[in-house]
């Protein structure tokens, strides 16, 4: 397959942006122009170039809006938003770049809202969901206009589309939420602790037991539309949860709630410790876990390795922010909390009673499907075959990249036709 960058990380993240072209998050020539000016594994050139493309797209959006071309304006605002999101993505040092990252992320959100108000065929409601005392989670509820949902009689089935470990809810609209709305589903996205603006600005660490976060969302929805007769017209008896990558792990945890009627987990991890195993030498990691290597030595070696590998540098920095830990040893140790495992008689997946669709990516940068997706499917032994389905893709065009990057259209076809089948 053609490569845009030598490094796997930059190449994957560029394709991730390029993949959103299908749903309005990218213009091919704009992306290729950006790629030509980005230095491989250089965070500053990545940030500067995507920021430049964002400003150009924003100017076009405003021009189109002034001329009454709201369709072009909406699309350009979405591109400007996505490029602004991309411009902060590689800025790995959250402590040094905090103010800059927040500014870019807030700009991305503002541009997205401007684009969403101009959309045709979709009505967008901006919501704030109570979480903990004094903390609210930003959310969007997307409703299809009746012309797009003729096959759905009555109220709209609802999909809760979860963010993952490094995505924003605005990006999730371009990945899968819009595809759901165009098929007649109502779709809710939100940013929880450890995600998006709540991570970058509020510094809220991620919660391994994400089912508690989704439970708060479900409680909010029940209060928002107790009888299904509110302006939103959503069917609370048909709520599904969809997630990609770490968001798929969250989806599986959320699926234990009896209010979830179906779960789609696209390329989930079984255990986040697998990231540590894949990034560090086996002897070094086992020596540290056994106590032969001190935390000080561990932090020093990880720091040295990070200087030699930008991807590792970015991942360690993101883990520090995501977990709220102060050093690499604490962040790596915190990964062990993100697991679906347990004793044979108390496995988390045993709690899931609803139908589950799980996929794996044979060319993933992060998770080996034999240790994640296939293991998850095998542990859903209590579900009969009609209630569970496994899809493993090898080649990129067939969904072989993590989170189905490069194949969003194919993934959404699989996701939403499977969800529709659950209503039959």
TrEMBL record:
Q: Name one GO molecular function term.
A: hydrolase activity
Q: Which Pfam families match?
A: Abhydrolase_6
Family (UniProt) = Belongs to the AB hydrolase superfamily. FUS2 hydrolase family.
Give UniProt keywords alphabetically: Hydrolase
Q: Which residues form a coiled coil?
A: none
Q: What is this protein called?
A: Prolyl oligopeptidase-like protein
Question: Record's PANTHER family?
Answer: ALPHA_BETA HYDROLASE PSOB, DIENELACTONE HYDROLASE DOMAIN-CONTAINING PROTEIN-RELATED
Q: Which organism is it from?
A: Corynespora cassiicola Philippines
Q: Which InterPro entries match?
A: AB_hydrolase_1 (IPR000073), AB_hydrolase_fold (IPR029058), FrsA_esterase (IPR050261)
Q: Residue limits of the AB hydrolase-1 domain? A: 179-292
């Amino acid at each position: 397959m053609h490569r845009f960058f030598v490094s796997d990380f930059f190449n994957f993240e560029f394709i991730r942006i390029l993949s959103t072209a299908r749903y309005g998050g990218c213009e091919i020539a704009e992306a290729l122009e950006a790629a030509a000016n980005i230095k491989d594994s250089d965070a500053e050139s990545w940030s500067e170039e995507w920021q430049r493309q964002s400003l150009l797209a924003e100017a076009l959006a405003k021009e189109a809006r002034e001329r009454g071309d709201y369709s072009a304006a909406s699309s350009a605002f979405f591109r400007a938003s996505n490029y602004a999101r991309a411009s902060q993505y590689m800025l790995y040092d959250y402590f040094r770049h905090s103010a800059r990252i927040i500014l870019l992320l807030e700009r991305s959100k503002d541009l997205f809202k401007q684009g969403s108000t101009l959309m045709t065929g979709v009505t967008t409601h901006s919501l704030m969901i109570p979480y903990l005392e004094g903390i609210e989670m930003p959310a969007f509820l997307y409703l299809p206009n009746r012309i797009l949902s003729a096959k759905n009689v009555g109220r709209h089935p609802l999909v809760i589309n979860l963010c993952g470990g490094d995505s924003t809810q605005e990006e999730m609209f371009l990945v899968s939420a819009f595809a759901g709305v165009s098929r007649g589903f109502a779709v809710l996205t939100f940013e929880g602790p450890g995600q998006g603006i709540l991570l970058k600005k509020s510094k809220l660490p991620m919660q391994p037991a994400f089912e508690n976060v989704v439970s708060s969302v479900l409680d909010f929805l029940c209060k928002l539309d107790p009888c299904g007769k509110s302006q939103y017209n959503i069917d609370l008896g048909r709520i599904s949860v969809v997630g990609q990558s770490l968001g798929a792990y969250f989806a599986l945890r959320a699926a234990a709630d009896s209010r979830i009627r179906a779960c789609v987990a696209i390329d989930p991890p079984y255990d986040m410790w697998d990231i540590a195993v894949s990034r560090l030498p086996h002897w070094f990691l086992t020596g540290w876990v056994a106590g032969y290597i001190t935390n000080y030595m561990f932090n020093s070696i990880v720091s040295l390795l990070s200087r030699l590998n930008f991807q590792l540098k970015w991942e360690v920095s993101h883990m520090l922010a995501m977990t709220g830990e102060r050093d690499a040893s604490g962040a790596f140790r915190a990964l062990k909390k993100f697991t679906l495992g347990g004793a044979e008689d108390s496995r988390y997946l045993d709690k899931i009673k609803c139908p589950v669709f799980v996929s794996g990516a044979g060319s993933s940068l992060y998770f080996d499907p034999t240790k994640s997706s296939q293991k998850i499917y095998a542990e859903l032994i209590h579900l009969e075959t009609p209630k569970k389905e496994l899809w493993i893709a090898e080649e990129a065009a067939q969904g072989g990249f993590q989170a189905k990057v490069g194949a969003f259209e194919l993934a959404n076809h699989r996701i939403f036709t499977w969800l529709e089948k659950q209503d039959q």
